[in-house]
Amino acid sequence: MKARIVTLPGDGVGPEVTDAAVAVLKAVAERSGHTFEFESHAIGGCAIDATGQPLPASTLEACKKADAVFLGAVGGPKWSDPHAKVRPEQGLLALRAALGVFANLRPLQVHPALASFSPLKNEKLKNVDVLFVRELTGGAYFGAKTRTEDAATDECKYTVAEIERVTHRAFELARDRRQHVTSVDKANVLETSRLWRSTVQRIAADYPDVKLEHQLVDSMAMLLLTQPSRYDVVVTENLFGDILTDEAAALAGSLGLLPSASLGAGKVGLYEPIHGSAPDIAGKGIANPLGAILSAALLLRHSLELEIEATTVEAAVAQVLSNGPYSRDLSGNATTTQLRDAVISALDDVATPAFLCGLRACG
Ligand SMILES: NC(=O)C1=CN([C@@H]2O[C@H](COP(=O)(O)OP(=O)(O)OC[C@H]3O[C@@H](n4cnc5c(N)ncnc54)[C@H](O)[C@@H]3O)[C@@H](O)[C@H]2O)C=CC1
Ligand SMILES: CC(C)CC(=O)C(=O)O
Ligand SMILES: [Mg+2]
Fold this sequence. Notes:
Elements: E1 2-10, H1 14-32, E2 35-40, H2 45-51, H3 57-65, E3 68-73, H4 88-99, E4 103-109, H5 122-125, E5 129-135, E6 145-147, E7 152-154, H6 160-175, E8 180-185, H7 191-204, E9 211-216, H8 217-226, E10 233-236, H9 238-252, E11 261-263, E12 269-271, H10 290-302, H11 307-323, H12 336-350, H13 353-356
Parallel strand pairs: 1-2, 1-3, 3-12, 5-10, 8-9, 8-10
Antiparallel strand pairs: 4-5, 4-11, 6-7, 11-12
Helix pairs in contact: 1-10, 1-12, 6-7, 8-9, 10-11, 11-12
This protein binds 1,4-dihydronicotinamide adenine dinucleotide, 2-OXO-4-methylpentanoic acid and magnesium ion.
Keywords: Amino-acid biosynthesis, Branched-chain amino acid biosynthesis, Cytoplasm, Leucine biosynthesis, Magnesium, Manganese, Metal-binding, NAD, Oxidoreductase
Subunit structure: Homodimer.
Domain Isopropylmalate dehydrogenase-like: 4-343
C-alpha cells in the first residue's frame, strides 16, 4: 500500500524519538513492500520561533491531507514564560481539535523483564493489560480562560454529545477485549462529572455484553497502583486521563515506554508517545524511543489497517525489552539510536512470511 505520513517532530526530545519511529516505519516498508512517504512540518516551540504561531496554517493543511500524523512532543522552558501570549502546547491542542481526534487510546502493558522498575511486586503486575480511553478535545483544556492580577479561571465544560461519542468508542473497544469498562469521574463534586456518569450509564444499556463500573478519580489513582490487573478499558475525561496515564507509565517502568493513538470520526489519526519534550535530557541522544516506536505500531494498525505489520513492530519491541539493550531510564546505557537499531534488527528475528512476502501484493 501507499501512504502519506506527516511527521511533526516538535521540541526537546521530540525530534530524537520521531527519527527513531520514522526509521522503524521505513524498515517496515522496505521489508513488506509498502511505500510510505514522509513529510515533516513544524509545530510547538520551534514553529513559534519560525513563524510566531504554534500551529502554522501550512502544518494543519498538510495534516488534514495526510493518511496519518506522527508527533514527537512540544514545549520546553524556552517557551514557558507564564506571561507568554502564545505557547507550544496551544499548537497541539489546536491540532487535536482541528483533526477532531476525540478519543485518545493509551494502552498499558507491563513487560516481565521490567518488573523490577515498577513500584509493584511481580505478583501484582501479572496480567496487567489496560486500555485507557481519554476524552481528548473537551474539558478544562479547551474551556474559556480568564486571568486578572489576583485570580484565574479555566472553564471545564462537557456536552452530552462529547461524552456519548467517546463512551461508544470505549464500549466498542471493550467488546474486542475483556468486556469490562471502568468509567472514572469526580461525580461526588463536579457537575461535569455527574453529566459524564449519567451519560455513560445510559450508553452502557446499548452494550449489555459489557460490564460497567464507575470509580471516583481520587480512589482510582490509588487502585491503579494497587490492583492494576483489575482493569480492562478505562474511559475518562481529558484532564483525569492525562494524569492517570502518566501514573500508569510508572507501572510499565518508564514514561518513555507508553504510546498513544488519537482517533476521531474522520480518517486522519494522530500518533504520539504519551511523554513530553523531556527538556532535562533533550539533545543528549539518550531518550527512550520505544513509546514513539510503539505509537508508530498503532499508526500502522489504526490508520493504515496493517495489523500484521503493527504486531511485528510490537513483537520486535518486546524482544528488545526481553534481551536489551536498555536506555538510561531503564538503568542501561544504550542511546536512542542504538535502541532504534536494536528494534530494526529484531524486526528480522520476529518477521513472519506474511510480513515479508509483500503481504497483500503476494495474495
Ligand atoms: N504531548 C506533548 O507534546 C506533551 C508535552 N509536554 C510538555 O513537555 C515539557 C516537559 O514536561 P514534563 O512535565 O517535564 O514531562 P516530560 O514527559 O517531558 O518529562 C517527565 C520526566 O520523564 C522523563 N522522560 C520523558 N520522556 C522520556 C523518554 N522518552 N525517555 C526517557 N525519559 C523520559 C523526562 O526526562 C522527565 O524526567 C513541558 O513543556 C510540557 O508542557 C508534556 C506532556 C505531553
Ligand atoms: C497538551 C498536552 C501538553 C497535554 C498532555 O500532557 C498530554 O496530552 O499528554
Ligand atoms: Mg500528559
